[in-house]
């Protein structure tokens, strides 16, 4: 007969947790793949269970660490071991990531920190299931003075009204705008409707002294800039 494992023996996953924490402490987050970063988050949420299979299943379903954090609560809870309290912890991490990204663009010239703007837009909306239209309002120095979601639509359509956009810019005394929306399909390529809507907003805004700097489209597969593509 094989030797029975003693009741006092620690669970096998505790050693793994210690080793992973030590590797993270020594080398940082860039040294661990997405599923292990998820494990580190789940350690505190699920203290008495091996979370590696849960983390791997989350990545299998949603694709990346970022997409997992942004996934709808109902879909997250389809994974065995994920309950409401775990979802809350994941959403806290997501909120923290968004706030960090927003901090990188707040109160500084947006046009000189363009990569931070893109990072913020992607963190805020690239993984959303429904289309959203966001406006970044800038002052005369091109510093961010407000960031608002104007519309949230169905899976692939958000109605945008140019006069309402410009009216809000005037209310905030904004001198410039950056338009942002997401494509839930994942492909950020602009549509003919995206281009038409951008030009309509620019035409209404220009006589009032408001500049449309760009329209950024974000998706899981990256981002597109209408200005960069010479479409505006």
Overview of this protein structure:
The chain is of the alpha+beta class. The chain folds into two domains: 88 residues; 98 residues, Cytidine Deaminase, domain 2 (3-Layer(aba) Sandwich). Helix content is 45%, strand content 16%. A five-stranded mixed beta sheet has the order 2-1-3-4-5, sandwiched between helices. Helix 2 packs across helix 3 and helix 8 crosses helix 9. The N terminus is likely disordered.
Give the % helix.
40-55%
Which descriptor suits the 3D outline?
elongated
**The CATH topology of the largest domain:** Cytidine Deaminase, domain 2
The CATH superfamily of the largest domain bears the name Cytidine Deaminase, domain 2
**Distance between termini?**
77 Å
Helix and strand composition category: alpha+beta
User: What strand line-up does the widest sheet have?
Assistant: 2-1-3-4-5
Rg, please?
22 Å
Unreliable runs, pLDDT <50, ≥5 residues?
A: 1-7
The percent range for strand residues is 15-25%
Whole-number tally of structural domains:
2
What is the mean predicted local confidence, pLDDT?
86
**Number of contiguous helices:** 9
Largest sheet: 5 strands, mixed
CATH architecture of the largest domain: 3-Layer(aba) Sandwich
Order of secondary-structure elements: HHHHHHHEEHEHEE
Number of β-strand runs? 5
Q: In CATH, what is the class of the largest domain?
A: Alpha Beta
């Amino acid at each position: 007969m094989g030797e029975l494992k003693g009741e006092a023996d620690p669970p096998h996953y505790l050693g793994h947790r210690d080793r992973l924490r030590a590797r993270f402490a020594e080398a940082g987050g860039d040294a661990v793949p997405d599923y292990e970063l998820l494990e580190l988050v789940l350690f505190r949420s699920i203290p008495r269970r091996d979370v590696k299979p849960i983390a791997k299943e989350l990545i299998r379903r949603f694709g990346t660490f970022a997409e997992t954090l942004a996934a709808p609560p109902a879909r997250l809870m389809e994974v065995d071991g994920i309950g409401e309290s775990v979802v809350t912890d994941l959403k806290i991490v997501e909120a923290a990531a968004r706030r960090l990204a927003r901090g990188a663009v707040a109160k500084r010239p947006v046009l000189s920190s363009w990569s931070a703007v893109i990072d913020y837009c992607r963190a805020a909306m690239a993984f959303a299931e429904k289309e959203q239209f966001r406006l970044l309002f800038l002052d005369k120095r091109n510093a961010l003075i407000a960031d608002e979601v104007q519309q949230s639509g169905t899976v692939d359509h958000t109605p945008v009204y140019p006069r309402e956009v410009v009216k809000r810019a005037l209310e905030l005394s904004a001198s410039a705008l950056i338009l942002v929306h997401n494509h839930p399909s994942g492909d950020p390529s602009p549509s003919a409707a995206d281009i038409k809507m951008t030009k309509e907003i620019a035409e209404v805004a220009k006589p009032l002294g408001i500049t449309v700097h760009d329209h950024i489209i974000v998706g899981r597969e990256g981002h597109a800039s209408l200005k960069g593509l010479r479409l505006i």
